[in-house]
Write a structure and sequence with these properties.
single chain, 294 residues, mainly alpha, flat
């Protein structure tokens, strides 16, 4: 009897609580959708400017009458006489692929060595790695240029790959070290008891178990290398070696701005990171917020 009376008294409170939760959830969803739409608007403008002729953009890309979709701007950007984006995309791939694979290999090896090393220098080395993460690129621009010039690597994609590798190693080491620490130690010890050396254990046990972390690091590093402008601006200035990101400002006319051409070039450069994100979205998010905190 007391229980029935208690339930009757609590029903109005529960109803108000549920209503507040539903209103709060609706408000959060509306806010999230609103922010998402605001984020998409600039990209929609770039896409519409790239795929429509210039005469339809005079009164704003958001006016959809008339609407004529064409690949003419994309073709002009790819074959531009002074800053062809086709060559720029090829050059960017020549830098992005080794600039991703090389730090992946070196960073994971260094992280495994630091994690399993019994040396007293391990802790100071990790401290040094963490401190290097705080160094801004602008601080190393001049010494990096002088170092590469003395080594004959200015105006060379190899020099840019080495610069990206060196720049990525601190966060790669920290990232893989944190992930390797979460792997079960028993599997590694079983491999060592079976006679495998450290190198074999790394290749046949640690690396296969770390493929999700490798995918995360590859997604982040490839995106950063592809979108890089600063290091390329410091180290590469020969016209035929310019990357895609360096060629976009060169498409701006001297007396007028061809927004269709600029938007097409931007769309071509954005396509690769968007494709990487679409294919590796799950690992991309985990790499940003997950394993780095363990």
């Amino acid at each position: 009897m007391n229980g029935r009376v208690r339930r009757r008294v609590l029903v109005p409170g529960e109803a108000r609580h549920r209503w507040r939760r539903a209103a709060s959830s609706l408000l959060r969803h509306l806010l999230a959708w609103g922010l998402g739409l605001l984020w998409v608007v600039p990209f929609a403008g770039v896409a519409m400017s790239a795929l429509r002729p210039s005469r339809e953009l005079l009164h704003g890309w958001w006016r959809l009458e008339p609407l004529t979709l064409s690949s003419e701007n994309l073709a002009r950007a790819l074959d531009h006489p002074t800053a062809a984006m086709a060559q720029g995309l090829v050059n960017s791939l020549r830098v992005a692929i080794p600039g991703t694979l090389l730090p992946l290999l070196l960073g994971s090896l260094a992280a495994y060595g630091l994690l399993r090393s019994r040396s007293r220098a391990r802790r100071p080395l990790m401290m040094g790695v963490v401190l290097l993460l705080a160094v801004p690129q602008q601080m190393v621009a001049v010494p990096l240029f002088r170092l590469m010039r003395d080594a004959g690597l200015v105006n060379s994609h190899a020099g840019l790959v080495l610069a990206h590798t060196a720049w990525a190693l601190p966060w790669m080491i920290l990232f893989f070290r944190n992930y390797f620490a979460t792997l079960p130690r028993e599997v590694e010890e079983a491999a060592l008891l079976d006679g495998a050396g450290r190198w074999q254990t790394y290749l046949r046990v640690i690396l296969p178990m770390s493929l999700p972390a490798v995918a995360s690091a590859a997604a982040l590093q490839s995106t950063w290398v592809w979108n890089d402008f600063f290091l390329a601006l410091v180290l590469v200035y020969r016209p035929d070696l310019l990357l895609a990101t360096q060629r976009i400002p060169l498409l701006r006319g001297q007396y007028q701005v061809d927004w269709g051409l600029l938007s097409s070039a931007a769309l071509l450069v954005m396509a690769v990171p968007v494709l990487v994100f679409a294919l590796l979205q799950r690992y991309y998010v985990r790499g940003l917020v997950g394993w780095t905190l363990k």
